[in-house]
Each structure stands twice: as C-alpha cells, then as structure tokens.
Design goal:
Layout lengths: L1 H8 L7 E5 L11 H19 L4 E4 L8 H12 L4 H13 L1 H15 L3 H24 L18 H10 L4 E3 L2 E5 L7 E5 L7 H14 L2 E7 L5 H13 L11 E5 L4 E2 L15 H19 L6 H18 L7 E2 L2 H4 L7 H16 L30 H11 L1 H10 L3 H21 L8 H24 L9
Parallel strand pairs: 1-2, 1-6, 6-7, 8-9
Antiparallel strand pairs: 3-4, 4-5
Helix pairs in contact: 1-15, 2-15, 3-4, 3-5, 4-5, 5-6, 7-8, 10-11, 13-16, 13-17, 14-16, 14-17, 15-16, 16-17
C-alpha cells in the first residue's frame, strides 16, 4: 500500500498549471445547495492539490451571460425588480405562453448587441450579486479565488472561436442555427449559435478553455453537476477536432469532475420552479441546531458563537465530502450533527480532546515520533510489540500515511477517500483514548510515547480538517 501511494505522490508535479473551476453562481439568483456542493468539493480539491505541491489556480466562472438574462431583464422591465419569486413567475408564464420565452430570448440578443438599457440593467444585477456571492464564499470558509472570469469575460473572445470552427470546416447551418455535428461520436448535434443569433454556453466554454491554454494552464478541471455530462463530452470532442485538446498532458487536458444531487425528503432543487433550498437557509438552520446542542451539553463554552459557526460548517461540509461525489445523496440532519458518529463535529471533537490532553501536560514532547514509509515503528518499550498495543500501533501508522492518502484521493478527484481515512484515524484515536491512560500513566517512558502519539495524531487530524475546509477547534 505504501509503495503504491508513494508512486502516486511522486508523480510529476511539473506537468503545468491547473485551472480549477468551481462555485459558478448565477447572477440575480440565490445560491442553493447545488452551489454549495460545487463549492465544498472544489475548495477541498484545491487544498489537496496545493498540499501536494501542484500549481493550481481557482476561478468562480460566474454565470452572468446567456438566455436566462433575457428572462431577468424582462422580469426587471415587467415587475421593476428581480428576485427568485419574480423569476419563477415569469418562467411559469413562459410555460403557458411560448411568446414570453421568445420575448426573453430577444432581450438577451439585444444585450449581446449592446442595447444601452439592457446593458445598464445587466450591470446592476451583476454588481449586486457578485458582492453577495463573494461574501458568502468568505463566510463559508472557502479559500480566496484566484480569478473571477465570468461568462461575459469571453464576450470578445467568442468571434475568434467561430472563425476557427469555420476554418476547420466544423461549423454547419441547421434550421437557422450554427452547429457542430457530433452524431458520429454518439454525442448528437452541438449548438454553437442559436437560430435567433444568440450565443450558447458551449461557445463560451470553448473560449474559456482556449483562453486558459493561452494563459499557460495545461489542465482545466470543471467541478459541475452530472446533468452537464453531455455538455462536457461535446466540449471536449469539439476541442479535439479543433486540435486544442490532445492526448493526456500534451495539448491541454479537460476533466469534468461531476457530482450528483443533494436532495431533502426526496425533492430535487430548481431555481426556475421556485422550490430551492437556499445555501444561506441551510447554513442558518445548521447553526441553530448546533446552538441548541451546545446549550444542552456545554452552556459555559468560551467563544460560543465562533464554535457554533465552525461546527455548523463542519457538519455541512463533511456530510457532503464523506460521500462519493458521483452519488446522489439525501441530506440527513441526524447524521450530519452526530457528535459520536461519522461526522464533521465528531472529527472536531476528537481534535479538541487531543488538544485538551496536550494542554494538561508539562512533559517534554521531543524528540517527535517519526513516521512514513520506513520509519514507522515507535521506540522499543518492551514486550512482543515493543510494549505498545495494536491500537497505538494503528494510530501511529494512520498518522504516518497522511500525504499518501491525500495523493490517493486526488488521483481520481475523490475527496471521500480522504474523508474516510480521517474517520479511520479518529476511530483509532478514540479507541486508544479509552484503552490507554496518558496523563495518568505511571511509567514515564510509556507516558512520553503516548503523549508523542497524541501530538502526532493531533497534527495529522488538524491538517486533515484544514484540507476539508473545516476549522480545527481546541475546545468544544
């Protein structure tokens, strides 16, 4: 196992810069749980890639362009305001009256053509939304984004893509629309420019990838839900036909890091239908539930509000990350807030328990225990296993393979593998805590070893929580 993991770890890190795209909020719409999933997964992947020494930069790629802006502009003109209620109302009208949808499409075409009124409405919507999105990202504990290249950023770059597609004889006219036929690859017909002259998300993504290559990014990772699988298959297929994407690592690589739905009581999420679960509401609910638990268990806790916020975020993030991202998951409050089970609060509580032990000792903790591929054994304390229990040996082993586990998880961009490893570690730590006295141990050699083991496990768990985007707490 160690041999395999070291091979993963020592894979070349000089394969070029990585552009990691996640979060992708849509202007003038609320953030929902789907945005929370891409943010949680993307942020974790960035942290792990940075830990392994990769040059990775993140991009929010906010949705501030496209046909939906025709609806938003039309809603603004019709109602004098834009919010999720008005947006849902207008979409409901469009389902009954097709002329409403056509009107909205034309509003977007006017926006693309530079109509002053539509540009002014659009700019106001963008500025207000961006402030809210970045404030949420900061409050939710996401790493700062390196770039904010929204869809509109590629407005002046799309014409060149159309020219390249024509020069490669890839662009065909079909029912008034300009398309790339991918039927021979089983991917249908990819629309580049619609019959009304409006550009598509696919055209903007072509521009996005090529721009990224021009900026020196050898790999582009897209953390986007699995409903967009066909879109990315079409995107990568067209890029290969254009000669912009080749074999792995040669002419640029694109990877769709897909994830499934998170549902509540079996209901999916939809902004258009107005029945979404807002990310802000979910976070507020988590904080309220954590506050009640703390009031019952530890009402005199210092820095109570800070702890409540940290534990609430840990509950939401870990619940997501412990599941395989490919799976659809149903959110469960009992699981997410289980302080004695496979949850973020449980990991935080274990860290706080280890921190408490170390605060109470004056015993020197040097030299530290060594770990890794070949320095994995503790000093001989006598007996068949050097005087240590199988549980102590497991804690030491798990604490020593931290970076190898990060590398294993990042191989296929599966954070759940790393979350599962951390749960294994805390399970072993808590078993050790109940089996072996530390501060009460009379044998000074054993006490010293166990304190060093506590310190090593605490360091591994603290780093692990940070890679999941979870704050380690010294007291809970």
């Amino acid at each position: 196992l160690l041999s395999i993991n070291y091979q993963l770890l020592t894979k070349s890190k000089d394969s070029g810069k990585i552009l990691l795209e996640y979060f992708q909020p849509n202007i003038a719409k609320p953030l929902h749980v789907g945005h929370m999933r891409t943010a949680i997964i993307g942020d974790c992947l960035k942290r792990m890639l940075l830990h392994l020494g990769h040059h990775v930069e993140s991009d929010t790629h906010m949705g501030d362009w496209g046909t939906q802006f025709g609806f938003l502009i039309l809603a603004h003109k019709k109602f004098g305001e834009v919010n999720e209620k008005r947006y849902a109302e207008l979409n409901a009208e469009a389902e009954k009256d097709p002329s409403v949808r056509e009107h909205a499409k034309q509003e977007f075409v006017k926006l693309e053509q530079g109509d002053k009124e539509n540009r002014k409405i659009w700019q106001g919507l963008v500025e207000e939304s961006v402030k809210k999105f970045l404030n949420f990202a900061q409050n939710f504990g996401l790493l700062p984004f390196d770039h904010h290249w929204p869809e509109s950023f590629y407005e002046d770059k799309m014409p060149d893509i159309v020219i390249k597609l024509k020069s490669k004889k890839l662009l065909k006219l079909s029912q008034g629309a300009q398309v790339v036929n991918l039927e021979d690859q089983g991917l249908g017909v990819a629309i580049i420019i619609k019959s009304d002259g409006g550009t598509t998300y696919l055209l903007r993504d072509l521009a996005t990838f090529i721009f990224g290559k021009q900026q020196g990014f050898a790999k582009h990772l897209y953390v986007v839900d699995n409903r967009q699988s066909l879109h990315y298959k079409q995107l990568f297929a067209i890029l290969k036909l254009m000669g912009e994407m080749g074999v792995r690592g040669v002419k640029g690589e694109g990877i769709h890091i897909d994830y499934g739905f998170m549902s509540f009581k079996g209901e999916a999420l939809s902004t258009r239908k107005g029945n979404i679960v807002k990310a802000s509401d979910l976070l507020a609910e988590a904080e309220a539930k954590v506050a009640k638990i703390i009031a019952d268990k530890n009402p005199d806790l210092k820095n109570k509000q800070e702890v409540i916020r940290a534990v609430a975020k840990a509950a939401l993030k870990y619940f997501d990350l412990k599941h395989n991202r490919h799976s659809d998951i149903e959110f469960d409050w009992d699981q997410a807030l289980d302080f004695e089970g496979n949850s973020g609060p449980y990991l935080q509580y274990t860290y706080a328990r280890l921190a408490s032990i170390l605060r109470k000792t004056s015993t020197p903790l040097n030299p530290p225990l060594k770990g890794g591929k070949e320095e994995n054994s503790p000093p001989n304390l006598g007996g068949d296993r050097g005087g240590i229990s199988s549980t102590e040996h497991r804690v030491l082993f798990l604490s020593s393979i931290f970076t190898e586990k990060v590398a294993e998880a990042i191989e296929d961009y599966l954070p759940n593998l790393f979350a599962n490893y951390l749960y294994e570690l805390v399970s072993a730590v808590n078993k050790f805590y109940h089996e072996s006295p530390v501060l009460q141990e009379k044998d000074e050699n054993k006490k010293s070893f166990r304190l060093q083991l506590v310190k090593k496990a605490k360091e591994a768990l603290g780093k692990g929580l940070d890679l999941l985007g979870i704050k380690a707490l010294d007291e809970m």
